[in-house]
Backbone:
């Protein structure tokens, strides 16, 4: 499967997906770690992640797919939410919890 089609399929098949450096248990950068902490605090226990350090094709092509240059990248219901800063802003405002609970409920 071509990498852009695979990215599209991953985004469509998982209500909440985080493309990150490392894993939720062992994040490999501070931004990925903060994003995971915010998502878990917002109730996203059913979180699907892809470690871009182990997926060089995804790491190289995801910024073109999403038009977002950095990692992590959070998608909810197929829509790019953003990176670490936006995820933290949404968490602090209480919006992330609402978005996550809606994504899990569907």
Residues:
């Amino acid at each position: 499967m071509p990498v852009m089609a695979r990215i599209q399929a991953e985004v469509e098949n998982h209500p909440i997906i985080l493309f990150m450096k490392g894993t939720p248990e062992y994040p490999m950068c501070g931004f990925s770690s903060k994003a995971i902490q915010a998502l878990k605090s917002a109730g996203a226990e059913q979180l699907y992640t892809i470690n871009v350090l182990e997926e060089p094709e995804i790491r190289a092509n995801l910024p073109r797919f999403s038009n977002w240059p950095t990692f992590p990248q959070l998608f909810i219901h197929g829509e790019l939410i953003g990176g670490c800063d936006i995820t933290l802003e949404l968490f602090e405002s209480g919006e992330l919890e609402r978005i996550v609970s809606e994504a899990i409920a569907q």
